Amino acid sequence: MRLLYFAWVRERIGTGEETVEPPEAVRTVADLAYWLKDRSPGHAEALMDLTKLRAAVDQRFVPLDSELDTAKEVAFFPPVTGG
């Protein structure tokens, strides 16, 4: 699975992209975020508060409780504001 990180999420993790193979128990986007926290201190910091994150699965915005199913790509980013 390809992961993409944007804005301050990317800065804290230290990369904009990585490839992972989560275990079968990781079923939702939130599960994935919790699992990723153990990868590094940067992951833990960036994914600490899921209320400050948004996600997209295969380039479609989704709630964090969405099932991953056969997702090929997941992106994490802060809420987007316009203006």
Query: Count of DSSP E strands?
Result: 5
- Order of strands side by side in the largest beta sheet? 2-1-5-3-4
Class by alpha and beta content: alpha+beta
% residues in beta strands:
15-25%
Biggest sheet details: 5 strands, mixed
How many domains would you count in the coordinates?
1
Mean pLDDT comes to 95
Task: Characterize the overall form.
Answer: globular
> How many angstroms separate the termini?
33 Å
In the predicted model, the low-confidence regions spanning at least 5 consecutive residues are none
Percent helix: 10-25%
Number of helices: 3
Helices and strands, in order, run as EHEHHEEE
Q: Please state the CA-atom Rg, rounded to the nearest Å.
A: 12 Å
